[in-house]
Amino acid sequence: MADVTRRMLDLLALLQTRRRYTGAELVARLGVSERTVRRDVDRLREYGYPVDAAPGPGGHYGLAAGRAIPPLIFDDDEAIAIMLALAANANADQGRPGSIGDAMSRAYGKLDQVLPPRLAMNAATVRASVEADALRAPTIAIADITRIATAIHERRELGFDYRRGERATRRRVHPHRQVHHLMRWYLVAWESDKGSWRVFRTDRMSNLDVRTAGFEPRELPEEAALDRVKAAVKRSSRKAVVTVATSVDEVAAALPFQSMDVEALGAQRTRVTLRCDDWRWLLFHLSHLECAFTIDEPTAWAEAIERFAASVASRRRRGEDVVGGVRRSDLGRSRRVDSGRPALDP
């Protein structure tokens, strides 16, 4: 790549950070003269990039928000990083039309088609060497994320139906911040009717409506909205403490998306503190650990899991491997009987 092309890309990368740079700063960053910086800025303008320049003392350069921005230019590392992020997260939901997963899959396909041949080969080589776990999360429509963002930015009330179990209620809130925590989206908002800060799961919201009524923003008691979400998640769950016969690194690798505290008690002994809704969820998490463990608290959960394990062992000894309340032997006979029947359309 010619030096002038590389320099233009470096200049554009700096300006796209939305920060304002003085001429002296650009001279130092690019290693060229001030005259060369002015000439390169003029070239960017010819290519259609709206570069603002404020002359005189305190002057600066910055990339303005234009109505028509030319295609973004990424260097090799940036392009491959974007492709990997899209490929790794495209399966996070069921990929329904309008969902985040669907948009990621479409974006990956479009970027893959427009990459230069050399860069496309590099991206394909890296992509072929990677397997991504399909971590399922509730499906979220990008349109809902956008509506919430609009209401936050414009300080307008947000109305929506909120579902808890079988019951749905109409809510009206002053939205403060969206939070992505442990593969779920949340909204932190002030609810006037209740006179308090509330946390809502976005996947339980429907019929979102950005209202015309505005509001004055309030200061959140916590330092960050994420702290409020974490506190809300903790309140709806119960603390569990487990001693695991493996290292801290093995625990972190087996439970990568769990909010938990780990304490090394030895080379192959770790205390894990996490929160769950009930003992079944705790057992589900612990099933990812291929090692012995002891449930220190709560005692009731330890006893419930022991009874469950004893029940399963007893049924297996009697040949009654029960699945969903049906003995596996009966389930097998049922499948053999039904195997000759035509399948019904869904």
From TrEMBL:
<keyword id="KW-0805">Transcription regulation</keyword>
<dbReference type="Pfam" id="PF13280">
    <property type="entry name" value="WYL"/>
</dbReference>
<dbReference type="InterPro" id="IPR028349">
    <property type="entry name" value="PafC-like"/>
</dbReference>
<dbReference type="Pfam" id="PF08279">
    <property type="entry name" value="HTH_11"/>
</dbReference>
<protein>
    <submittedName>
        <fullName>Putative DNA-binding transcriptional regulator YafY</fullName>
    </submittedName>
</protein>
<dbReference type="InterPro" id="IPR036390">
    <property type="entry name" value="WH_DNA-bd_sf"/>
</dbReference>
<dbReference type="GO" id="GO:0003677">
    <property type="term" value="F:DNA binding"/>
</dbReference>
<dbReference type="InterPro" id="IPR013196">
    <property type="entry name" value="HTH_11"/>
</dbReference>
<dbReference type="InterPro" id="IPR001034">
    <property type="entry name" value="DeoR_HTH"/>
</dbReference>
<dbReference type="GO" id="GO:0003700">
    <property type="term" value="F:DNA-binding transcription factor activity"/>
</dbReference>
<dbReference type="InterPro" id="IPR026881">
    <property type="entry name" value="WYL_dom"/>
</dbReference>
<dbReference type="InterPro" id="IPR018356">
    <property type="entry name" value="Tscrpt_reg_HTH_DeoR_CS"/>
</dbReference>
<keyword id="KW-0238">DNA-binding</keyword>
<feature type="domain" description="HTH deoR-type">
    <location>
        <begin position="4"/>
        <end position="59"/>
    </location>
</feature>
<keyword id="KW-0804">Transcription</keyword>
<dbReference type="InterPro" id="IPR051534">
    <property type="entry name" value="CBASS_pafABC_assoc_protein"/>
</dbReference>
<dbReference type="InterPro" id="IPR036388">
    <property type="entry name" value="WH-like_DNA-bd_sf"/>
</dbReference>
